[in-house]
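User: I'll paste a sequence; please echo it back and then give the predicted structure.

Assistant: Echoing your sequence first, then the prediction.
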Amino acid sequence: MPDEEDRVNVTAQCMLHEPPVPVVVEDAENDGSKVTCPKCGKDYGSWGEVKAAMTEAATAQQQEKLTAPFQGLEGWKVTRD
């Protein structure tokens, strides 16, 4: 089981509010379902699109965690395949 520091937490929130409001999905089993803000009604696209954006954000966060310790070290180059 991963340590807490190894976990990536990504949430979809409407940033038009303070504090941000978690968005809602009509049907999480269906990638075509609409994702909206329950407070203002803003449409964030389909659940499939939002999941893809969340996966991209999590991947970028993990990439940063993996490369940060090597920054500035001579003779090391961290690449992504």
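The radius of gyration is 17 Å. The chain has one domain: 4-63.
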